[in-house]
Amino acid sequence: MAGHSHWANIAHKKGRNDEKRGKLFGKLSRAIIVAAQTGGGDPTMNLSLRYAIDKARKASMPNDNIDRAIKKGCGEAGGQQYVSLVYEGYGPEGVAILCEALTENRNRTGGEVRNLFEKNGGNLGTSGCVAYMFQRKGLFAIAPGNTSEEQIFDLALDNGADDVKEIDGGFQITCSPDDFDQLNSALEEAGIETEIAEVTQIADTEVELDEAAARKVTRLIEALEDNDDVQNVIGNFTIPDEVQEVLNAEG
Predict the structure, then answer these.
(1) Which of 3, 13, 69, 205 has minimal CB crowding within 10 Å?
(2) 133-203 has which CATH code?
(3) Residue 148, Cβ neighbours under 10 Å: how many?
C-alpha cells in the first residue's frame, strides 16, 4: 500500500495490480520462494510462507504457480537465491518513502531504484533516514458491504486490533504483527472477505497532498512499483478522495 488510507485509493491500487497481473504474479512468486527458502515449504510451520500464499490466492494466482514457487524455494526445482532489501528515500514534496525489494542482484536493483528516484523528483537516502517514521503493523482492508460496523468492531477488538476505521463504507483495521494471525483467522472464520491482509509498514503521521503534489508522488510510486524487484512501496502521505478521482480519470 503506497501510503493511502482512503478506500478509493486502496481500490485504485488493486485495480492497477489487476491490470498488470503477469508482473504481479512474478512478484508474488518471488515472495513465496524467499519465504520457503528461509522457513521451509510447510505453511503450517512457516507463517511467512502462509502469508505469502494467502496474498497470492487473493490475487487469483493459480495453484500450479504457487506450488512451483514453493518447490523453487525448497531447492526442488532450481532457481535463484533472493535477498530482502529495504531502500529509504524522499519523494517530491519531501514525502518519506520505504521501498521493499527481493533481488538476486543487489547492485543492479540498487542502481535501478536510485535511478527511479532521481528521474521522478526524489532522492535515495541512507539506511534509517525515514524508517523511524513508520511502524510495522498488520493491515486489513474490507470492502463496503462485506460486514456491519457492529460486527467488525466487536470481532476486531476482541482479536487484537489496535485501530478500526470506517472509510467510505468499508473498514481499515490495524494490529500488532504478533496479533495478525489471530485476527486474520477470526475474519476468515466469520466469512468476512478482506481485500488486503498483510503485515506492512504504516506511517505514524501522513501528509495530505494537493493535486499537483499527488501527481508527482504517484508518478514516482508507480515507477518504483513497476520494477520487477520491488515488492512494496510505502509513503507517509494520503490523497484526498476528490484529488484521487481526478488522478483516476487521467488513467
Answers:
(1) 205
(2) 3.30.70.980
(3) 10
pLDDT tens per residue, range 30-62:
999 999 988 899 998 998 899 899 889 888 899
Topology (CATH level 3) of domain 7-73: Arc Repressor Mutant, subunit A (1.10.10)
| Residue 24: band (very low, low, confident or very high) from pLDDT cuts 50, 70, 90 | confident
- Please compute the mean of the pLDDT values over residues 222-227 and round it to a whole number: 92
Q: Which residues contact 7 (CB under 8 A, 6 or more apart)?
A: 141, 143, 144, 167, 168, 169, 170, 172
Domain with CATH 3.30.70.980 in the chain: 83-128+208-233+244-249, 133-203
Q: Which CATH number fits domain 83-128+208-233+244-249: 3.20.20.10, 3.90.930.12, 3.30.9.10, 3.30.70.980?
A: 3.30.70.980
